[in-house]
Amino acid sequence: MSLTQVRPSPPAAPRHSASGGKAKQWWYRFDTRTMPYFLIAPFFVLFAIFGLFPLIFNAVVSLRHWRIDEPDKTGWAGAENFTRLFSDGDFWNALLNTFGIFILSTVPQLLLALILANLLNHKLRATVFWRVAVLLPYVTPVAASTLLFAMFFQTDSGMANWFLSLVGFGEEEPLNWRAEKWSSWIAIATMVNWKWIGYNALLYLSAMQAIPRDVYEAAAVDGAGPQRQLWQITVPMIQPVVIFTVVLSTIGGLQLFNEPMLFDENPALASGGSDHQWQTIAQLIYRVGWRDLNLGYAAAMSWALFLIILVVAAINALLTRRLGGGK
Amino acid sequence: MERFGRRALRTAVAGVAATLLLASCSGEKLAGNDTSEGGAEQITLKVNFFGDMGQEMLKERFEKANPNIKITLNSAEYNVHHEDLQKKLVAGSGAPDVVAIDEGFMVQFKNQSDKFVNLLDQGLGSAESRYLPWKWKASMSSDGKQIGLGTDVGGLAMCYRTDLFKEAGLPTDREAVSALWPTWDKFIETGKTYTAATKKKFIDSGTNLFNPVLGQQPVGFYSEQEQLQMEGGPKVAFDVSMKAIDAGISANLVSFQPGWNQGFTGNKFAVLACPAWMLGHIQQTAPSTKGKWDIAAIPGGGGNWGGSWWSIPAQTKNAEAAAKFIDFATQPEQQIEVFKTVGNLPSQPALYKDQAVLDFKHEFMSNAPTGQIFAKTAESLQPQYLGKKNGKTREGVEAVITQVQQGKVKTTEAWPKAVAAAEKAANS
The pTM is what? Predict the structure, then answer.
């Protein structure tokens, strides 16, 4: 804001250099009033091209018939693509899968991140090492880590089943992680958690370090144990960051694509399992758009997803605000 | 108000200026690309394929014969390969100069014959005499354009592991093994014997019984009127695969995927339905099993599964060179070489009587006379009409078979689900 404010204009220029003064004045006004818009414009231009335009174009497409494999079928569809969503079993199944995996990944993820950050906030040996170490999964490319996880969760030779067999599960018949909804959800949520816990922990840690020590000391004097300090001092005081991570992981969780995609035995199909056990909405959009080549319907799905994310992110932000807002 | 208007105007002007700046940058880059032309005209042909079509050998020989043409090869997964082609045909750009098309997708593409170069215009009409009549006809559009030159047909046989058969106390000799399974029922019985003796699974997957049995039926998923016909051939094939799964002889792997590839070396299965092109897959994925495979007759006799064409998308700027390539690739000398190195069975009947083919012994497959075995199957081939949505339909039914193998669906309840999946694909 302060940039756009006009400073008191310079004292009136002496008469004899009127023309030069005018140009100078013009330049001065241009510099203070117009220049800031130029400087900030690239962001908005890029946003308009890569954010706003696709959004609007998508909305237009979602109201039309557009099939790549049947070029003759064009024209306005009205709300047809959207009404079809309500009776489409695949869409509801994908919605269920998305929310299931979202809850299985977001809740443990943020809780564990909080606990991890709390631990890192204590005096430890080799602090820097631990802090860098928790960030490593975040740095690993999703494709690489997911392929490893796909092997980890293999039926016959996967390590997950080996661990289970150590505690006596599935020695006779090893668990087929891809067969059922619950097992595939757990597997995918594990990949998401593994990647994001460290990242969120570091965000929490940086917020925690801004909390003055004397608050804790006062609480300790009043007899608050570590548990109580965490929930009644730390969490409320880092609340803005908590809201930020909740909203971000909501958006990321509802758009989940890479992990479920590469978890499939034949990723090219984008089917999310033999019976779509773990097909997420993003995957379904990809499948309808680029495999069934039904762009209109895929666009309607994208818009539905967009609206769902808006609503869920808003609800989550509100809930989190309440949660931390004391009592 | 007035102030606000001016501010908005300034913002807009700034925006336009920035856009122009961006546009001019990218324009410069594009212009720089065009000016690299020197000396003799050098042509690069982009060739997209799937599986193994003997492409390395073709590239080497063709480049040697045509020093001004370079070949670049790109391979992709079967479904992705064909869907990618479809997208690029509609988009009007990005398609390769030469592309392989499998029979499962041929009907879909020949219905868009305007998107392909008519090979009759390239002087390749004379190639007709080389081909099995139905192979030539299968890639011809209804208005008489020829959009592809055939490469192979998928005559069927049954590959089996001699070492594992020996362990199970089964015969290992080709003739004796063929005599074990004149029918699919007998085949499943043999599987039970094997599994009982070794505690190992006999076949790789129910889907790899479904496909060859379907290939033996007179009518596949679709009639020539594009009507889905699930109660005919598909039902017969589905029942055979269910019976095998019930018998507990299937390793329940997903074919052409990593787990299946590991199954070759892990001895997870002892037989594999072998269209001729499968030999290439086996050599590629499990080179360490060399000499452990042999080839017997397929139960039920005859049948076709797969087989491809080389086509030229109309977007190409090098139609002439591309035509030269596919003509070269389908010449008898090259087809025989592909047959010897990869295993793909040519679709040219003269070659079935060619001495080089008949005398050939496939070293990898225990010196089986693949020429004689597959030439015999090819002569009795009954071509099947494959509908426009054949690829998607098969994928849907295969997914149901996978569900059965995962224990999610009982074999007795699977058929209605398969019909529903097929109908969904047909109407998608």
Answer: 0.81
